[in-house]
Write a structure and sequence with these properties.
The chain is α+β, with helices and mostly antiparallel strands. The protein starts with a strand and ends with a helix. It is rod-shaped and about 100 Å long. It has a 5-stranded antiparallel β-sheet. A 3-stranded antiparallel β-sheet has the order 1-2-3, with no helix packed on it. The chain has a 3-stranded antiparallel β-sheet with strand order 9-10-11. 11% of the residues are buried.
Length: 197
């Protein structure tokens, strides 16, 4: 390797086979049949080789994208857990409300008298003279039977029940601001009494 006028010359010895010589007959080949080494030289700046690796800015961009994906994945995971938990809680509340309404429907069906003291308290008197009390307190319902020990309580029900007496039926309003959402629970004893002459 030599330097000429600020440039670098680099030479290699390359063997040329006879087939690599074009346009020359075998008699014109150099001594040795054209297999003597041929000296090839390159004068000029050597080509620079590209360095392998990643730049700092590329690494920072990749880390930033990974951080964004991680945050979005965590938010999606917690939102899914919250939705599953709310769905389970809603189904449990509906089951409690259905159980309470089944008990109230049974009590009303055999009641001979329905008395509503207010929108949150109703008394159902049976033909045997026993009284069953129902109370509604927000999203909870309480049933007190003829005996003090006969007490049932349902919390976190699916609807805010309020009561109203209408002839031989008990009206249960699901929500105070939604008159269409109501249940009508008739009394068989009172309906039979109305049909008698």
């Amino acid at each position: 390797m030599k330097r000429h006028d600020g440039q670098i010359s680099q030479c290699w010895n390359v063997a040329r086979p006879p087939s690599a010589v074009f346009g020359r007959s075998p008699k014109n080949l150099p001594p040795g049949g054209g297999t003597q080494p041929r000296r090839l030289c390159h004068i000029g700046p050597l080509p620079m080789r590209r360095a392998c690796g990643f730049l700092l800015i590329e690494v920072m961009i990749v880390l930033g994208l990974l951080a964004v994906v991680g945050v979005l994945s965590a938010q999606l995971f917690f939102a899914t857990l919250r939705a599953v938990r709310q769905s389970s809680a809603g189904q449990t509340a509906e089951m409690r409300f259905d159980l309470a309404m089944n008990e109230l429907r049974t009590d009303t069906w055999g009641a001979s008298e329905i008395t509503c003291d207010d929108a949150h308290h109703v008394q159902l008197r049976t033909a045997a003279g026993q009284t069953v009390h129902w109370n509604s307190d927000g999203r909870s319902l309480t049933r007190t039977g003829p005996k003090a020990t006969e007490r049932q309580h349902w919390t976190d029900v699916a609807a805010e029940g309020s009561f109203a007496a209408r002839g031989p039926a008990l009206i249960v309003l699901m929500a105070a601001d939604d008159p269409a959402g109501q249940m009508v629970l008739p009394s068989q004893s009172m309906l039979s009494a109305e049909r008698l002459p």
